[in-house]
Amino acid sequence: MNNIDTSQLLNQLRAASMQARAASPAQAQPSDGDSFSSLLSQSIGKVNELQQSSSQLTQSFQLGDPNVSLAQVMVAKGKAGLAFEGMVQVRNKMIDAYQEIMRMQV
Asked: How many Å apart are CA 106 and CA 104, to the nearest integer?
């Protein structure tokens, strides 16, 4: 059984949180050439990438790869889970907006 270094795990979570905060303002401001659909496609691609990466790390850990720690697997699963939940929230808001538009009288 691997021993988990909680301080290392906490530092990794903090670093991931800071990276997400640093990346989100740049992604929230679309440049002139970006459309909503391309930003949405890129976001879905990133969520998919995180899910696949998490899956690969999990499989490597289960197969006993000495280069993969439990902390890495847990951080990857956390990132993938948060990204997926965020995407679900975006989808829900888009459905709400669509339903609101459909209720409008023309």
From this structure: 6
